[in-house]
Amino acid sequence: MARKKSPNLTEGELRLMNVVWKEGRATVGDVVAGLPANPPLAYSTVLTTLRILEAKGYLRHTKKGRAFIYEPVIAHEEASRTALGHLVNHFFGGSRELLVVNLLKEETIGRAELRRIKKMIAESEQGAQK
Questions:
Q1: Which range (2-16, 28-42, 94-108, 114-128) has the least confidence?
Q2: CA dist 128 to 88, 117, 121, 124, Å?
Q3: What ranges make up the beta strands (E) of 2-125?
Q4: What gap in Å lies between CA 97 and CA 100, rounded to an integer?
Q5: What proportions of the chain, in percent to the nearest 5, are helix, strand and coil?
Q6: Which CATH number does 1-91 carry?
Q7: Which CA distances in Å does 49 have to 5, 29, 66, 67, 110?
Q8: Nearest in space to 17 (alpha carbons), one of 42, 44, 52
Q9: Cross-strand partners of 68
Q10: pTM for this one?
Q11: Residue ranges covered by each domain of the chain
Q12: Which of 98, 117, 120, 130 could form a disulfide bond with 92, CB atoms 3.0-4.6 angstroms apart?
């Protein structure tokens, strides 16, 4: 049975999207060149994955000569929010609080990072009171 298509990015798709987001526009060759050499990805694998990303709505292409130039349709920030929403909904029953509680229980958070988080919470509380 074929696997259901996921609108979320796989790890491999994310690697390619990171190159396209960084470059802004890229050919298949540009993406291959922008990926880490280890493990190497074949040109045909990158091409297939870019086509999948286009079908998922993450990329679009224009043709310049014989080359396809891929551009992101979805910004990195939007993809991050979508992935986070998926995580919250599927693993924490839609509860952001449970996500934060799990992060605080399972991760060691440095003092500087904790101060920044507290500041963001305070700012969020002030915005909610308005």
A1: 2-16
A2: 21, 16, 10, 6
A3: 59-64, 67-72
A4: 5
A5: 60, 10, 30
A6: 1.10.10.10
A7: 13, 13, 19, 16, 37
A8: 52
A9: 63
A10: 0.79
A11: 1-91, 93-130
A12: 98
